[in-house]
Amino acid sequence: MKSFVIGDVHGRRRQLRSLLEVLPRDPQRDKLILLGDLIDRGEDSPGVVGDLVALQRETPAHVVVLRGNHEQMLLDFIERGDATWLEKGIGSDDTFEQYTGQKASAVEDARRLLREKMPPEHVEFLRSLPLYHEDDYAIYVHAGLDHGKHPRETDARTLLWSRDIDFFKHYRGKTCVFGHTPTPLLPLLGRLGRHGIYIFNSAIGIDTAYNSEAPLSCLSLPDFVLYQVAPSGKQEVYHLHHSFTEALRSILSGLASDYAP
């Protein structure tokens, strides 16, 4: 059995569908895990949610979808009227218009309209999403852990929102795969190689960003094969043990030249 772990989708339905087609996954045996932030920014957030509702319904024991901070903000908006989700830069304007066919106006009007237009099964699906998952290979969270604590001992805000340099650089517990922080913003030493994900000690970051060229990434465990699909449709596959070797050679070569007489 393998675990296929996908980073932040952010509404990129075409890329997600292409990535799922690339994966050599046995739906009845292998596990599919998504790290949250399914919505906002991309071309079809409702389509992403709908696809995952259907996938999980087909094989519920083999499809795990985590809650990200963007799903939490949407739920807080629907349930409590918290307008954080509507703030500029979140990307909610795209999601709101995709669900309602309109642009958001006054907060209460926007809340009422979204509650009317968003399919109830989508809301219930987002409410059902767990904050973490664990299997034999790793712990999976959206954002990070609190000083190496197990997720069950970590508060929800940390699991959803944290960007802790101590976790990125010093975490040495059971392998933890996370998203949330785009890998170009993570410490340089963990980004060696051409693959674009972050691996340092026991922390593995696979949110390979959201822009016109950024790939959507999936890491397969325990074999450490990385599958990526770019917005153009270009596909890449990296056998990361080879990448580690190349990166190590590069470091050793650099050290040798630094100390050459």
Structure report:
With 261 residues, the chain is α/β, with parallel strands linked by helices. Helix 2 crosses helix 6. It contains 9 helices and 11 strands. The longest helix has 19 residues, at 240-258. The chain has helices spanning 13-22, 45-58, 69-80, 92-100, 107-117, 120-128, 156-161, 165-170, 240-258; strands spanning 3-6, 31-34, 63-65, 132-134, 139-141, 176-178, 198-200, 203-205, 216-221, 225-229, 235-239.
The side-by-side strand order for the widest beta sheet comes to 3-2-1-9-10-11
Whole-number count of domains: 1
In CATH, what is the homologous superfamily? Metallo-dependent phosphatases
Distance between the termini: 51 Å
**Helical segment count:** 9
Q: What spatial form do the alpha-carbon principal axes imply?
A: globular
The CATH topology annotation reads as: Purple Acid Phosphatase, chain A, domain 2
Largest sheet: 6 strands, mixed
How much of the sequence is in beta strands?
Answer: 15-25%
Point out poorly predicted stretches.
Answer: 247-261
Structural topology:
Blueprint: E1 3-6, H1 13-22, E2 31-34, H2 45-58, E3 63-65, H3 69-80, H4 92-100, H5 107-117, H6 120-128, E4 132-134, E5 139-141, H7 156-161, H8 165-170, E6 176-178, E7 198-200, E8 203-205, E9 216-221, E10 225-229, E11 235-239, H9 240-258
Parallel strand pairs: 1-2, 2-3, 5-6, 6-8
Antiparallel strand pairs: 1-9, 4-5, 7-8, 9-10, 10-11
Helix pairs in contact: 2-6
